[in-house]
């Protein structure tokens, strides 16, 4: 599903960037080769970041 219309970024692309370590929307856009434009997708990106466990918050990798 396309989440960012300005950069034509899908949820899969965004999830991949987050899984690879992007922790701010700016980092996610950069990892996907885009840049923030209208900002409509920023809330969705922030939600995706917050819902993705990180090694620092889940060092044992437990569910």
From TrEMBL:
Pfam families xref list: Fer2_BFD
GO molecular function: 2 iron, 2 sulfur cluster binding; metal ion binding
Keyword flag Transport: yes
InterPro entries noted in UniProt: BFD-associated_ferredoxin, BFD-like_2Fe2S-bd_dom, BFD-like_2Fe2S-bd_dom_sf
Keyword Ribosomal protein found: no
Superkingdom per UniProt: Bacteria
Family: Belongs to the Bfd family.
Protein name according to UniProt: Bacterioferritin-associated ferredoxin
Lineage, broadest ranks: Bacteria, Pseudomonadati, Pseudomonadota, Alphaproteobacteria, Acetobacterales
